[in-house]
Amino acid sequence: MANEFSGSSWWETIPVFAALLVALFGPGWLVVRALGTRGLEALAVSPAVSVAVIAAWATVTQRLGLGWSWLVLAAVTAVTAAAGWLVVRALGAHDPVLTPRRRLLGRPDPHAALAIGIGVAIALATILPAIGRPDELVDSPDAVYHLNRIRLFLDTGNFSIVHPTFYPNGFHAWIATGLQTGAAPVLPGTNVATVILAAVAWPLGVVTLVRHALGTSHIVTYAAGLASAAFVSFPTILLGWGVLWPNLMGTALTPAALAIMLQAARTVTGRRLRERSRRWLGQWFGFAAALVGLALIQPNSLVALVVFALVWFVTARLRAGVLGHAPWTAVGRDLGIVAVVGVAGLLTAPLLSARLASTQSYEWKGQVSVWTALVEVVGGRLQIPVVLWGVLVLLALGIGWILLRARSAIPVVAMWGVVVALYVMAASSTASWTALVTGYWYNDKVRLASLAAVPGVVLVAAAAPAVRDLLLKVPALRIQGPAVSLLALALIPFATVVAQGPTRTAMLDNFFRPADPTHVILSSQAQADLAVLAEEIPAGEGLVGRPENGSPLMYALFGTNTFYRSIPVPDTGDENLIGTGFDDMTTRPDVCAALQRHDIRWAIDSPHVYWLDRPDRSSGLFSLASVQGLEQVRTVGDYTLYRITACGLGG
């Protein structure tokens, strides 16, 4: 299917864009400022804190019998901010010198703002044309579950983490909150939300992180904005693969949390103890609030922060030993404690959590050699046929510059190296001991490749001062300082966005418009056909059909009460019973009872089958034309609607 880019349709999403931005930044901004977090970090970390406010309070208010709404959000935000303010005042951690305006708004840096704007502009220019239209459906199986859950939240006002079953609710609760304004339906609203994460939250977090890791010089600041668009592994791949939208959100918000962690750990020491204490507490309060949000989006984002924190600690202790700032006996003791606690945690965590043990049991086929895995993660050749030499060169230059000129950022190099090692283990090994480590990411190398982009952007940004220093060694260029800096900065987008342009676009285009029709869940024509059939079904009455024919999306798109709302059919419960026994319902009282329990009075059939097929779980829903107890109602396109007349459901 051809890509039909519609700029006007994207302009029409501005109201939902604004609503989602307010929900993403507003609550968190007020809370972190009340907690004493300042500067760019307060803005960058506010999305994670907003999600913590929305997701946690939505679960609490549901238990209190309150439906979720913007009014409830305003109330709980005020309560949370007030509680934070009181805690800070009680601890004496507030700064009485700051004016109310400075305390709320801080002191914006125009260069940082411009760098973030550059990152936003590049992301929008590369993402929107590749997606095409805001109502374009990404053809990945998890989209069915995520879209249906958002619709369920909107229909019921119940945004709880256990609705309908336990699953982190941060991603869905934020989007559903934004869509409560009625500014857009579920599908285009969700697409806009993912664009906000990739093109706003991610560049903002990247600029914040790079400035903490490499300093606040102008070249580093602008390099950060450019580096935010350097990788195909993130955010491009997670806009379509899976589709792992909660992972997309968690990874997009990780740089900001990592930045505020570094800020808290490196609080300025040359100030009075009282002022240092105020800054330290505000930073750690903001970091702790962000961790709650990340855990409620995707728990592996929380694990990633723990890993980064441990790497930072280990690297800092080793550096202290090398520089003579601490005796090696103390360094060895500290590293030994970390090793013992880490190994004990890895061994006991799956014993304490059945859900984690299940996650760690995922097996991905297609393991590759260690060398191939390194090429995939370092050279960017993951799900694409070429090595991204531009990124590879920039990474090498950045690492070299950090080792020679910015050694305080060596822990970030170590963080990147650890994620690369995790990727190699996931991509090349099926051993049980590697799953203990990589299982937090489902042993999935795509998730780990995306995570590698978090410290990776720092390395790419460091390439700009590295190139500038190399160019200034040329005698003829020494007096052209600003021009040399601009040339060094230009290398980043030319080596990445420009050089990778066709590759990046082709990847997104294939996610949204697969060439293979069996990889299409629901084409635009199929959506129109199902919309016609949806009008035949009375509100509330249940509909069943093979999940692989795209019918579960009738709930997200039209509100039809579909029995299945994810792909594939679960292997237990009524879902499996109906999926395997529907064709025998006239002789199976247990199947009839299940249909009656869920008020399923309609069935739908189609020759179209999405490629992710588990035929053993939906074998009773094949070829409904030959099933007894059904009455054909209407055929539109490839879809035929039946009324169930058996099991006492015909009335």
UniProtKB/TrEMBL annotation:
The chain crosses the membrane at residues 14-32, 39-58, 70-91, 112-131, 192-210, 222-242, 248-268, 280-297, 303-323, 335-354, 386-404, 416-442, 448-467, 479-499. Pfam families: DUF6541 (PF20176). Keywords: Membrane, Transmembrane, Transmembrane helix. The keyword Kinase does not apply. The keyword DNA damage does not apply. InterPro entries: DUF6541. This is Glycosyltransferase RgtA/B/C/D-like domain-containing protein. It comes from Intrasporangium calvum.
